[in-house]
Amino acid sequence: MKEWESVATQLCQQLEEPLARLAVRRPPTWPGLIRQVGALRLDFSRTHLSPDLWAAISPLWPAGGWRQAFADMVSGAIVNASEQRAALHTAARGFAVPEHDATGAAVAAPIAEADRLMQATVERLRAPDSGYDAIVHLGMGGSYLGPALVLEALAPTCARRFETRLAANIDPQAFRRAVAGLDPARTLVVAVSKSWTTLETQANLQLAHDWLRAGGIADPGARTLAVTARTDLAAADGVDASRVLPFGEWVGGRYSLWSPVGVTIALTFGWDVFMALRAGGRIMDTHVAGDDMNAATLAAVSGYACAAAGAGSRAVFAYDERLRLLVPYLQQLELESLGKRVTAEGLPYTGAPAPVIWGGVGTDGQHAVFQWLHQSSDWAPVDLIACAKPVGAGQEARHRTLLANALAQASVLMHGRASPDDPVRAYPGNRPSTMILLETLTPESLGTLLAFYEHRTFALALLMGVNAFDQMGVELGKTLATGMDRALATGETSGLDAEAAALVGWLRTR
Length: 510
Hints:
Blueprint: H1 4-14, H2 22-25, E1 34-37, E2 40-43, H3 51-57, H4 65-75, H5 89-92, H6 108-126, E3 134-138, H7 142-154, E4 163-167, H8 172-179, E5 187-192, H9 199-214, E6 224-228, H10 231-236, E7 244-246, H11 263-269, H12 271-289, H13 295-308, E8 313-318, H14 326-338, E9 356-361, H15 370-375, E10 382-387, H16 396-415, E11 433-438, H17 443-464, H18 475-490, H19 498-507
Helix pairs in contact: 6-11, 7-11, 7-14, 11-12, 12-17, 13-17, 14-17
């Protein structure tokens, strides 16, 4: 059993005040603090990473270290022990596709067939005479957040074939907003649910079918494209088999945008754009496969050290409006993967807990939460993300100002500024940040960025010793909601706790 508490204690001793003074303790010549991966430049020079810190955390890697763990994952080993599944999102984007996973289930053939079906579907529906000019994408969690992020990020620079809307929330307002102004006769519904039992997606699909019927569509199933691992259940709901895109159980929802879950991306922007997104992911896969001290493991070691030193959160700010949905995407990716209280072996977890992810876009955040980042008695590490080049001609001056703000925030976070005569104007500094620069925001560079965060999450899970691929904490609340729904409908509160029963009683009088 790993000695979590002793390692955490050692780290806290090394990272005093609460972190060791960066400019003093980080050797400026330590190699590898700046990594170029494809079109991404990842700069860890304003963190507390050092050879001593790397060595202190190294005992937390599982047997064989990062490379063995990564090799296990991409080869189809059972890395999701609680559900006895592989985790092959890397294979979904074409990296090191195994023939079978560790259970003997075929991998390569189903992925190839899924790609063939998806590409054919995309080309057929993008044809000028397909009869469609709009898409409503229904999903929840990773079936929504990944596609939503990519669709918004690429919209300003990639030509769109469709007017594409998305809905996730079970609140009917979400669906009404998604279909506002659309013609049911020319709208394709894409419903994405791995289990085909997701409550929110099923509820919105019912709304979508009712909306299509009200618009004169006699057979809504014929206007629906289903993406699921349960093709049988989709067929039972009236979706013809020719309109079902399957994907494997070994692709987790929050890692799934590379699979047929991303079909709406391909429909909107074209198959070539989707393949470029995947290619960008493979660039990061290749990088992290070849070096123990890669961008993802450096970020994970830095993140674990910050958590061990008392940072309960991590901020992410993109200095690019196109990436405003990155934080919600990362919240699901990281908090579902790392928010665990037992280890992968089922033992109590006693190490540093995973930080809460929060943030937004710059420069908006500078006029709100950056006050906390710079001068609070608490602190958090920060990821600052920006693009080196502007979008379109004539924007060079404004883009330069945007970049100047990102660079200035990183410098102030690290170095601070003393003010002996006026403590209100003192900035303590010594607050780590990672600068991530994209040459430009393209499908490929976006894919590389998202794959970086996937691998960072997996690497941090390995250091923590937790399972990055299950999410049991999501399930209980959903299960209890069924009983609450029944109680609200009938007034029968037996089995509910007293507080819930009282609220049900009050709500039924409204």
